[in-house]
Amino acid sequence: NWILRGQFIFWLLAYLASTWNAIQNYQEKAQTVSNAPGIFVTSITLYTVIFALFALITFVPKLGYRPRIFLMLGAYYFLSLALFSLSALSGDARIFLFAFVVLAAVFLDTPWNILSLAAALLAFAVMGWLNVSGILHIAAEFQYNATDPSAWISGWVVFTALSISISLGITLLLRSLRQSLEKADTALQNEQRAAASLRLLSNINQLIVREHDPNLLFEKTCQFIFEHGYESVWIALLQPDGVSLAPICAGGNPPPMPDCALQAIHARARISAPPHLAIPILRPSRDFGVLVIGAPASFTEPEILLFQELAADLAYALENIETENQRHVIAESAAPLLTARDETEFWSAALQSVRAVLRADRAAIYVYEYGADRLTCPYATGLSQEYIDEINRRFREVPGARLFRDPQPVPVDDTESNPLAAPLRPLLLREGIRSYCVFPLFSSQKLLGAFVSYRNAVIPFSQSDLESGQTLAHLVAAS
């Protein structure tokens, strides 16, 4: 727009000067030149049409970019042809044709700028041929070199060299400028996305400090991510079967959760499946779930690292929330244990505490009788009598036998692959037990027995689980 307005000022001055010059020439040559009226009318008409065309493309932007550019270039092109027809090499035709080449190189992309250059060279050659062959007849005062082939050839060669040089130079310069601007724009967008991601991480970290409800934590996290310009977001938790995922919350209006979510949690690694990025939410000893983000553009490496940090923060927050919940459950379990009126009520309360604190599907209390050197299971829930009898009979072969040497919890995270479970593996798998942990019960430095927390899915016992189980074991033994 500014280029067109700047040109319009010069075109206005040129129009006024050309009109005045045409009037002066007509007055001077009206008596001597036979076709003076025709030249005058043609000149005034040409100047007026060109000026009106420039006024149109300058002050009517609704025409659009390309129509205005082609009209402007067309005005220069046909004006140069008209001037070639009126004055051959004696007028300003070459200047306007050269301006056409320069402006085409500035405003048009390849191949249009090359086609414009070819059209200018062709126009110069054709107008030379028309003048040399005598097809065009011009006024006598403009006939200097008009029919001289060598003048047209040398003029065409010089014009070609200048036009090609200026066209290539402008094209390369603009291409370099465009690449620089694109790189700068890309860098700016990356910086803006990185800054937005850092703000997102800061907001969610503040949320983690304040929020102790996992569902609200997930819901607000999805909301924050969606509001930062991402198309979709899911948070899904691993189910007790250790295989499937259950979406807890989603941001925006996302489609069904992509397959990369399951791949990420099973591989315990990020999975990029454009336009989605899946990052597992996990701790060294526990898989919680997965965070999936959808974006309109590909994820940059800083974004990926930031979302990995976000997933790690969520896992840490979940672990802390679970630990706090376990402590709360242990505190609530103390009263029933301490106020139990008989042994049956006591052990029933103990089993309920084991299942609540350790998220156990089944639980059992085993008592060791020193005099008889035997193991009994007076209280259990969810276990078959066949399994209990077999454990009592082979108690020296089970992983829990290590308690006689080292009174520390004995976790078996996967009964199908853990070597500790090898002697009892068929029995355990037949019973449907996939993970369990044995916690010793001590009183006055004497092993009283143990309680066992069983899980039907492969869910490893975290450090928090082991610490909470030991605390519960001390509470049960003291009670």
Write the layout of secondary structure elements.
Elements: H1 2-29, H2 36-59, H3 65-87, H4 93-107, H5 112-132, H6 149-210, H7 214-227, E1 232-238, E2 245-251, H8 260-267, E3 271-273, E4 276-283, E5 286-294, H9 301-338, H10 343-358, E6 362-369, E7 374-381, H11 385-393, E8 410-412, H12 425-431, E9 435-443, E10 446-455, H13 463-478
Antiparallel strand pairs: 1-2, 1-5, 3-4, 4-5, 6-7, 6-10, 8-9, 9-10
Uncertain residue ranges: none
Order of helices and strands: HHHHHHHEEHEEEHHEEHEHEEH
Kindly estimate the percentage of residues that lie in beta strands according to DSSP. 15-25%
Quaternary state reads: single chain
Overall SS class: alpha+beta
Biggest sheet statistics: 5 strands, antiparallel
Number of strands: 10
DSSP helical segment count: 13
What strand line-up does the widest sheet have?
Answer: 2-1-5-4-3
| Rg over C-alpha atoms, rounded to the nearest angstrom | 44 Å
Q: Whole-number average pLDDT?
A: 85
Could you give the distance between the termini? 89 Å
Which percent range fits the helix content? 55-70%
Shape: rod-shaped
